[in-house]
Amino acid sequence: xxxxxxxxxxxxxxxxxxxxxxxxxxxxNSISSILALVDQMQQVDTEGVEPLSNPHDATQRLRPxxxxxxxxxxxxxxxxxxxEEGLYLVPKVID
Amino acid sequence: MAWxxxxxxxxxxxxxxxxxxxxxxxxxxxxxxxxxxxxVDLGMPGALPVFNEQALRMAVTFxxxxxxxxxxxxxxxxKNYFYPDSPKGYQTSQMDHPIVGIGHLDIQLEDGSTxxxxxxxxxxxxxxxxxxxxxxxxxxxxxxxxxxxxxxxIVSEPDMRSAKExxxxxxxxxxxxxxxxxxxGNMAEGSMRCDANVSVRPKGQEKLGTRAELKNINxxxxxxxxxxxxxxRQIDILEDGGTIAQETRLYDADKNETRPxxxxxxxxxxxxxxxxxxxxxxxxxxxxxxIRNALxxxxxxxxxxxxxxxxxxxxxxxxxxxxxALADYFEAVVAVCNDAKLxxxxxxxxxxxxxxxxxxxxxxxxVSAEQLGQLISRIKDDTINTKGxxxxxxxxxxxxxxVDGIIADKGLKQVSDMGAIEAMxxxxxxxxxxxxxxYLDAEVEKRGKxxxxxxxxxxxxxxxxxxxxxxxxxLKNKLDALC
Amino acid sequence: MTxxxxxxxxxxxxxxxxxxxxxxxxxxxxxxxxxAQFNSFITxxxxxALEQADAADARRAAGHAELLTxxxxxxxxxxxxxxxxxTCASKMLEDFIPPYESTVGQRLxxxxxxxxxxxxxxxxxxxxSNENSYFGAVKNPWDLNAVPGxxxxxxxxxxxAGLVPAATGTDTGGSIRQPASFCNLTGIKPTYGRVSRxxxxxxxxxxxxxxxxCTTAADAAVMLNAMAGFDAQDSTSxxxxxxxxxxxxxxxxxxxxxxxxxEFFGSGLxxxxxxxxxxxVKQIEALGAQIVDISLPNLELSIxxxxxxxxxxxxxxxxxxxxxxxxxxxxxxxxxxxxYCRTRAEGFGKEVKxxxxxxxxxxxxxxxxAYYVKAQRVRRLIKDxxxxxxxxxxxxxxxxxxxxxxxxxxxxxxxxxxxxxxxxTLSANMAGxxxxxxxxGFVNGRPVGLHIMGNYFAEAKLLNIAHQYQQxxxxxxxxxxxxxxxxx
Lengths: 95, 483, 488
Ligand SMILES: [Mg+2]
Ligand SMILES: [Zn+2]
Description:
The complex is a heterotrimer.
Chain A (H helix, E strand, L loop, with lengths): L4 H10 L6 H18 L23 E2 L9 H5 L5 E2 L2 E5 L4
Antiparallel strand pairs in A: 2-3
Helix pairs in contact in A: 1-2
Chain B lengths: L2 E12 L36 E2 H13 L7 E2 L1 E5 L9 E5 L8 E6 L5 E13 L3 E7 L2 E5 L6 E7 L6 H17 L12 E11 L9 E6 L2 H20 L7 E6 L4 E4 L12 E2 L6 E2 L2 H9 L5 H12 L3 H7 L3 H14 L2 H18 L11 H12 L5 H12 L5 H7 L8 H14 L1 H9 L2 H18 L6 H15 L1
Parallel strand pairs in B: 12-13
Antiparallel strand pairs in B: 1-10, 1-11, 3-16, 4-5, 4-15, 6-7, 7-10, 8-9, 11-12, 13-14
Helix pairs in contact in B: 2-3, 5-6, 6-8, 7-8, 7-9, 9-10, 12-14, 12-15, 14-15
Chain C lengths: L5 H9 L5 H15 L6 E4 L1 H16 L10 E5 L26 H8 L3 E6 L33 H8 L5 E5 L6 H7 L2 E4 L20 E5 L2 H11 L29 E5 L9 H16 L3 E5 L7 H16 L18 H12 L2 H14 L4 H25 L2 E5 L15 H6 L5 H6 L3 E9 L2 E9 L4 H14 L7 H7 L2
Parallel strand pairs in C: 2-3, 7-8, 7-9
Antiparallel strand pairs in C: 1-3, 4-6, 5-6, 5-10, 9-11, 10-11
Magnesium ion binds next to loops of chain B.
């Protein structure tokens, strides 16, 4: 699957990555060659093979419904780039 | 042209767990911002989710209550999107394998008939945080207390044909989730909110029209208004030869209009995939059966019992079982006064009227079920009459005393002393020769009605305290004796 | 202090030859003096390390010392360390000081081990040469022109250079075993779920697994004892009784069935590496093992499947780096979109961005089934291959990598060429089985590792095989200096 520059631009928006125009075709080329590698698996017949998402095919463990954490806001907020009045600040969100 | 309205609802119910869906943070409304967050809810690097057992139990309870297929193998998936209230850059939800599959719910229509609404699915997911738009130097503040709060998203089939049906469905859902105790159902606090998918099509056309999704409606009243105003908008556009855009819209209650949401302008590709930090939930028949067997009496069953056991009308039974809180209140009243009919009349009458006037939910009623039961008992034992009881009720509402205290203070105790009443009756008859003559001249079958005048005079003389039954009997006897 | 094994240091601490404070100070001084040439550390943690060392000395004085009490080690800079910068070798986390300690870190600290610093790595563990680091490439102590392997290249170089006796690593597609092979170390990737992932910054959640990198198998067993164990905070942690990975050391290898998959010895394999491996296999045969030819027919598919699954999971795992709650944030964002796009473009390096884009694409509408779901089906084929093979044999052996450490800069232009280096290691992560590397010789002065893979939870068996092999060989005891002296 060869990607065009426009594909890279779309993917970059989805992934929230600013890609300068000068780098677009470089990404298009390298990602296309990765996809060519990946496409080798299309030749294998996997009809009826159940997808494997966890090596053990294990079952989710359940946590008792208990409150186990105290308020640690100060510690958590100390490492944030921008906060005010106990809130994280971001550029204006418009609904 | 005649239009048909097609509505499907997605209801988000906040599950009443103590802790969050994937962390041990407390779930409580109204806390200081960001004080109920853990590493997990903040999406700290390296933090991992662990699933809350109670959320699973609640979701399965809901599934059994609406007679749905339960997913014995359900899977958490990541819904990827960037937004400041979504700290991980994805919402953990369910996609291909939800915990609850196809089910249904019956609603009562205004004409008294029943309509079955299909439930497509219900899945577990985590809530997002909140954006606070107070101005912080042109910035928005983010509070992640609500992040990872457990939600059950209940998706209906597009089976509703009017805003009223949508409200009836939402009310019924509210009754069920509160009855089975999986949510407090508090809509003002966002514990239950809905998105409405609304479209219209020419009557008779099979193909669905293009729909608009109305986001985050959080009161019964707004559901009806939002849908009606949206339907009007769509019909206006179509009748002007326009087309409807498939989009997400917001209902503005102040302006009573819907408008497109600006933040969702770009088409999103959520890139769902099974969450690799969580494993499939596998449950067996025994687990489901145990939950099904422990289900409390559901609204429909309760309504049927009100009819069969308490001899209420279908209508009253339906109204009284529409919310668990209301039904519980009613049963508590009856437990005290031992009169279902009177109890139903007072709860659906005077109490409902006061709640409505004060825009209050039953839980907030200042008159307790116990008090209302006592009040009804005082009517039954002839201590007060209905008129006096209404005065007492009003005083109870204002929380100015107990039932008996108010009756005594206001001198509402009914006069049942035969001698005193007889004297008043005799006085009224003696003072109203003209009316007595008319009574005597009237045909027998019309005399009953004419008693009203004398009743009024006697009640007035007694300042409303005379026992109306006794007055009526005496008047009738004495007047008829003059014939 | 160079080139002492972990057990040796433990013994010498017990014997009172020096205190934990003394050896910790020596090690930190040594790192400061010598690491400039390797660039194996991103952060040296003097203050915290000395606190931990003093606590260890006090604990020893009180008579409560364990094997690791007072023993210094280093963490790959992917393990969250409370109060100590954790960068993932990324500008994104250049100044990130975690508010908590990873489960593995807690366990090591609980035994009294002393963390002297954080080692360099490929950014967010994405790479096979440790050239993708915001803090610069790591150099192989065996040959400063060679890469140390990756992504745990800093841990490998630090141990190989004798700066620390042991280091933690993580292995998503070979990131412990390949650098161990390139740097002449014993490194083990345990069974998926054996070691808690809590507090380890995720690359690909369904593949990531942490393990130790040490000089000897015995050291690795001691380290793994401390690191492994059930953790309720990790849903994928396996609920197993605590295992003693030293318990099977010293078991004879008589009767052991060793499978050699023909796919591990194909045309891509450097003949000199093949010679080293076959010599090692011969030696293991001489110890009583029986060698059987086997096949893992879907091995080659592990590369395409891995390069869908790992980037897909990574694209989602790395979405949390958005400049809002921690980490890098771009200057003066114009709006929300600008905040996201510039923060992430400026904070992530090129290979990280490339993998995020590959994963984003593989999960996107219209491609999900053809890529992600297909890769997961292939993943089951690979798991089934191992199940079939391991029903036939006790363990599987082969090379860790097709070549010895390659030259710095030789593969950086072509990501696909770099990806092909992982051909022998990816499959163990896909299946979730344990696998390790043990030193097995040199090619032109660059080390070669023997790859040993086993069934789920067979770590003790693997470590014993490596240990038995290390009893009859001295590859693992060679050091860059002794080797250079011998002119090998
Ligand atoms: Mg929805
Ligand atoms: Zn939802």
